Amino acid sequence: MKAIGKYTWIAYTSVRSSLAYWGEIAARTIFMAMILYIFMRLWTAVYEGAGAERLGGLSLKQMLWYLMITEAIVLSSPRVSVEVDEDVRTGRLAVQLLRPLSYALFLMAKTFGERAVRFTMNILSGSIVTLVLVGPIPMSLSGLAMFALIVPAAFALDFLAYLFIGLFAFWLESTAGLWILYSRLTMLLGGMLMPIEIFPDRLQPILRNLPFAMMVYGPARIFVAPNARTLLSIAVSQMWGLAAFSIAVYVIQNIALRRIQSNGG
Amino acid sequence: MRHEVEIENLKKNFVLKRWHGLRRSVSEVAAVDGVTLTVPAGEPVALIGPNGAGKSTTIKMLTGILHPTSGHLRVLGLTPWRERRKLAYRIGAVFGQRSQLWYHLPPRDTFELLSRIYSIRRDEFIRTRDVLVERFGLGPFMDVPVRKLSLGERMRAEVAASLLHRPQVLFLDEPTIGLDVVARQELRDLIREWNRKDGVTVFLTSHDAGDIEYVAERVVVINHGRVVVDDRVTNVRRQYLSSKILRIQFQRAAPPVDLPGVTTLARSEYELKLAVDSAVAPIPEVIGQLLQLAPAADVSVEDPPLEEVIARIYQTAKGGPV
Question: What's the complex ipTM?
Answer without folding.
Answer: 0.85
